[in-house]
């Protein structure tokens, strides 16, 4: 992801024939990036943060993992202990986004609700492997800030978190403070970025928003030049990793556009999984969130019409790694 429109244009002038730059600029898709501020434990009430615990109203019910035996079906379940996961059913918290901060950026945030916060929850034990909707949750909370309090980590997540820290200490002789169940809070700054996919050499996997534009470059014989440009702007393993935190825009995937994987990963029919009906809501780099687990990236996807209604009750996730 480019960190600004100016950065994207500057690189275009360095790498591309001048005659195609206006057409390349037409392909820019604005997004909202999250840059960690480095303020570990920064818990401005109601503010944007990565990790930690969410700010919630009194009586908040932490999302719980729930699924039927039919959710498993005949799927292979690598390294997955479903019974153990259900003994600790609280879904880990990933990030909190303050929507007023997002709307301060202007038009790029127009499709998001104007008030409150989006709270993202995702379960590493289940979500990458099974199409269990409760393993990934997005909550839109509009409680006034003066009625919020920082949530307490549920007992089951705390138990799993502490057990993982002990196991790490035993195996590597090093203490730690993060696990797959809890990561200390880091404040984050929202900024307007520019997204484009990393390649245009797979027409069948073009982002729906960019199909016509990419076809023109292929027909004009500029596919290689444009692909090199995208590679420089969207490296598969971005450095720093936080450049992969993103709201809206076009997914910046490790593999192909995750919307083309919805049928398999979200267990949807071909009609329901039509990529043109879905868009990216949020993506996060798991290696930045928790470097001990690896270079996973997860994409929260939402139906176009659901986002237009402000309905976050049926968000699906696709997870990729290198």
UniProtKB/TrEMBL annotation:
Chain segments annotated as coiled-coil in the UniProt record: none
Family annotation (PANTHER family): SLL5081 PROTEIN
Protein name stated in the entry: DUF1963 domain-containing protein
């Amino acid at each position: 992801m480019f960190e600004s429109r100016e950065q994207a244009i500057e690189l275009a002038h360095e790498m591309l024939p001048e005659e195609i730059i206006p057409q390349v600029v037409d392909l820019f898709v604005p997004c909202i990036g999250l840059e960690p501020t480095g303020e570990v434990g920064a818990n401005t009430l109601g503010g944007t943060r990565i990790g930690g615990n969410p700010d919630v109203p009194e009586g908040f019910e932490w999302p719980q993992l729930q699924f039927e035996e039919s959710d498993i079906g005949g799927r292979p379940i690598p390294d997955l202990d479903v019974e153990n996961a259900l003994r600790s059913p609280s879904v880990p918290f990933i990030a909190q986004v303050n929507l007023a901060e997002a709307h301060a950026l202007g038009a790029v945030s127009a499709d998001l609700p104007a008030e409150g916060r989006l709270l993202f929850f995702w379960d590493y034990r289940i979500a990458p492997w099974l199409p269990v909707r409760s393993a990934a949750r997005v909550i839109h909370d509009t409680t006034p800030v003066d009625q919020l309090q920082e949530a307490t980590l549920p007992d089951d997540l705390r138990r799993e978190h502490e057990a993982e820290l002990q196991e790490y200490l035993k195996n590597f002789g090093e203490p730690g403070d993060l696990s797959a169940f809890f990561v200390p809070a880091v404040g984050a700054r929202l900024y307007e970025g520019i997204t484009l996919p990393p390649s245009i050499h797979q027409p069948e996997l073009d982002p729906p928003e960019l199909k016509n534009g990419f076809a023109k470059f292929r027909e004009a014989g500029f596919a290689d030049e444009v692909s090199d440009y995208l590679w420089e702007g969207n490296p598969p393993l971005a450095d720093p990793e936080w450049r992969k935190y993103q709201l809206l825009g076009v997914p910046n995937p490790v593999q192909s556009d995750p919307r083309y994987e919805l049928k398999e990963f979200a267990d949807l029919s071909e009609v329901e999984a039509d990529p043109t009906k879905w868009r990216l809501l949020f993506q996060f780099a798991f290696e930045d969130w928790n470097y001990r687990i690896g270079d996973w990236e997860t994409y929260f996807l939402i139906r176009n019409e659901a986002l237009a209604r402000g309905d976050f009750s049926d968000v699906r996730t696709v997870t990729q790694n290198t």
